[in-house]
Design goal:
Layout lengths: L1 H35 L1 H12 E6 L6 E2 L5 E13 L6 H19 L3 H13 L5 E8 H7 L9 H4 L1 E10 L7 H4 L1 E3 L2 E3 H5 L1 H4 L4 E9 L2 E4 L13 E4 L3 H18 L3 E8 L5 E9 L5 E2 L4 H4 L9 H10 L8 E3 L4 E4 L2 E4 L8 E3 H7 L2 H12 L3 H10 L30 H6 L8 H12 L4 E2 L4 E6 L2 E5 L4 E3 L5 H17 L13 E11 L2 E2 L5 E2 L2 E15 L6 E8 L9 H4 L1 H14 L14 H11 L15 H10 L3 E5 L4 E4 L12 E6 L1
Parallel strand pairs: 2-10, 27-29
Antiparallel strand pairs: 1-8, 2-3, 3-4, 3-5, 6-7, 8-9, 10-19, 11-12, 11-26, 12-13, 14-17, 15-16, 18-21, 19-20, 22-25, 23-24, 25-26, 28-29
Length: 669
């Protein structure tokens, strides 16, 4: 019995000791958690219920020189629906009304949406796609649709927001405005990304259940710093003129691609730049920045550099006579010929330029530089043709000018160079040279940006950069201006001459080089100049006496059956651009006198307004958007535009009585 009691007491002491130990262990652990490891566990708890959220900075906008918005950030929404979160009675009662609202808004029949919603309900779809890329205003409207207006948990309305870059003027100048995103860096946005992106902020939020978080006021909250806006040199009116003039010509000649650039003579500001490439379906869009990127053989527009070099060295004058023979000569077995089949005979050097005689310019340069080609090339270097311009926009093409004692130099390099073959330059380089002649010999750097600004604070202003104070003597520049004017008056571009406003320039027509390749039959074809593919160009300035703008137009691979000469393909684009700039933004009194009267403008205006009586809606289909908008707004209508290009469809039919203040929607092609 005594032994049994001792056994019980022993067990009791053991249990008591264990419980005492356990109690002390618990107390120790509590004290440890509370005081020793308290900070650690409090932080863990905080991490589960609190976390920092990024407050994204607003990316800077891109503006035109005239204040028009060229690029901005916009919210876009993807709308989805959790059909299973909607009460069955509410779903069955309001599904038809929701389908009707979706039909009115998105365009497909109401039955389509009702079937889609009911099928999703059967399949228990909690993430049904309704619409993508919905704008903010449309998102707000959709939130008020039947069922959707009940919210996320009762109405199943799911909206996923993203920020996208939008171009209010559409695809016009898209490559120059550029981008900085998953596609890489291009154009102005790519060049000034660091200035435009701003600095993101952060804000601490606390979890309040069901995946929702609310902001916590915290002294460590960091507000975002918005990016700087970029004020460009682009004039939206001139850009629109340039874009549509180029597009019309590319479409007519079914060309592969082309570009057109307008530059302000004194400042180097690029007022317009259009780069259009052709799709397989024959449509055109801003495919690449050809004006900046594409280094190519220029053909006869290069003769400006050749003639100017010889005049500057005083080895010739514009009156120097050269025998162009029968329009064909051979140099080391290679043929040089003029477009004029029988040649021009004996003509002056000035006339060689005006009629673009290949034989004439080759003979002049060969005679005076054959034994000293470096002297000729030094002039090209002085003219800014041997190195990149040095633009901040990425992807600038590298020019090529061969030099003696290098692998690319051969016994006909000099002669071929003189008429624009065996060399390559970008359209913007060529324009820079022509602009220097227009600017009395002062070469300025092409410029796309005026300033970086945020609200009323200017971070940086960009002034005119002079690359060469005088590329040639005033005497040489004066002579070059005159022969360029004569090109339009009585030379290869006399088809664009107008007594109403003065222009000067030079045509260019170059055969395209086809590299060595293997054809479809497996036969190896050596590199050669094509007789089917050409590049047509025209570069010049206007008005002649006090040039305000210079301009270049380059069109690659037009349909040869319709035309391929620079005078036929490119020069008319130059004229249309100059003509419309004259009439919309007068550059001086000589250009637009009080009694200005242009048959072309009158005919165009008469054609546009023939059905306009101020009482009925006119037919604007086929018109450029800018012309249509101006016409319709002037007769009291509000205009909404969808798409880019010319008017394909109008929401109010031709002949409908006008209701002042009514909205007409134009769908563009």
């Amino acid at each position: 019995m005594e032994t049994h009691k001792k056994s019980i007491l022993t067990k009791f002491y053991i249990v008591a000791s264990f419980m005492t130990f356990l109690l002390f262990a618990i107390i120790f652990r509590v004290v440890s958690i509370q005081y020793v490891e308290g900070d650690k566990y409090r932080q863990m708890s905080k991490d589960l219920t609190q976390k920092p959220f990024t407050i994204y900075a607003n990316k800077g906008n891109v503006y035109g020189a005239d204040g028009n918005l060229l690029a901005t950030s916009m919210s876009k929404f993807t709308i989805r629906m959790d059909v299973m979160s909607v009460d069955s009675k509410i779903f069955n009662r309001d599904v038809k009304a929701l389908s009707k609202s979706l039909s009115d808004f998105l365009g497909k029949p109401s039955s389509h949406y009702e079937q889609k919603l009911r099928n999703a309900r059967k399949l228990k779809n909690r993430y049904l796609l309704i619409a993508r890329n919905v704008g903010y205003n449309d998102y707000v409207k959709m939130k008020q649709f039947p069922i959707f207006k009940l919210g996320v948990f009762k109405g199943g309305f799911i909206a996923e927001q993203k920020t996208v870059r939008a171009h209010p003027i559409g695809k016009i100048a898209e490559r120059t405005i550029g981008y900085h995103d998953q596609r890489g860096e291009a154009g102005i946005e790519g060049a000034y990304a660091d200035d435009m992106k701003g600095i993101d902020g952060s804000r601490l939020k606390q979890k309040i259940g069901k995946g929702q978080w609310k902001p916590i006021n915290n002294v460590n909250e960091q507000e975002p710093i918005d990016g700087f806006d970029v004020i460009t040199t682009i004039d939206v009116n001139i850009q629109d003129i340039t874009h549509h003039a180029l597009l019309k010509q590319l479409e007519y000649f079914e060309a592969d691609h082309g570009c057109a650039v307008v530059m302000e003579t004194a400042t180097g500001e690029i007022k317009a730049i259009s780069n259009l490439g052709r799709t397989k379906k024959g449509k055109y869009y801003e495919k690449r920045n050809y004006a900046v990127w594409e280094s190519h053989e220029p053909g006869s527009t290069f003769k400006l550099a050749s003639l100017m070099a010889a005049l500057e060295d005083k080895v010739i004058d514009t009156s120097t006579v050269v025998d162009t023979e029968k329009g064909r000569i051979f140099i080391h077995g290679k043929k040089v010929e003029d477009s004029e089949r029988d040649g021009y005979g004996e003509i002056s050097a000035g006339r060689v330029f005006e009629v673009s005689s290949n034989v004439g310019i080759v003979k002049l340069i060969r005679k005076h530089y054959d034994d000293k080609p470096e002297k000729f090339i030094n002039h090209l270097e002085n003219f800014g043709l041997t190195e990149k311009i040095g633009l901040k926009i990425k992807g600038e093409g590298k020019p090529f000018i061969p030099r003696p004692k290098t692998k690319r130099w051969n016994k006909i390099s000099l002669e071929w160079m003189s008429w624009g073959y065996g060399v390559s330059v970008t359209p913007l380089q060529t324009l820079m040279l022509y602009n220097a002649v227009a600017n009395d010999g002062v070469m300025v750097k092409p410029r796309f940006i005026k300033e970086l600004r945020k609200e009323n604070v200017t971070k940086e202003k960009f002034e005119t950069v002079v690359l060469n104070k005088q590329i040639a003597s005033p005497e040489t520049i004066k002579k070059m201006k005159k022969v360029m004017e004569n090109v339009v008056i009585k030379g290869t571009a006399d088809n664009i001459y107008s007594p109403e406003f003065s222009m000067a320039g030079k045509t260019g027509t170059a055969k395209n080089w086809v590299p060595t390749h293997t054809n479809e039959e497996g036969k190896r074809i050596l590199g050669h100049y094509s007789t089917k593919k050409y590049t047509a160009s025209f570069a010049g300035f206007f008005p002649v006496n006090k040039p305000k703008y210079s301009c270049i137009v380059v069109i690659h691979e037009p349909n040869k059956k319709k035309g391929y000469y620079g005078a036929t393909v490119a020069a008319p684009v130059f004229k249309e651009i100059a003509q419309k700039i004259y009439t919309s933004t007068p550059v001086q009194r000589e250009v637009v006198p009080d009694d200005f009267d242009s048959k072309i403008i009158k005919d165009t205006y008469a054609n546009i307004t023939k059905d306009v009586d101020g009482k009925k809606v006119p037919n604007v289909r086929g018109m450029p958007a800018m012309d249509a908008i101006s016409l319709l707004e002037n007769i009291g209508l509000k205009v909404k535009v969808r798409g880019v290009g010319k008017v394909k469809k109008q929401s109010i039919r031709k002949g409908t009585p006008i209701k002042k203040g009514a909205t007409i929607i134009l769908n563009l092609s």
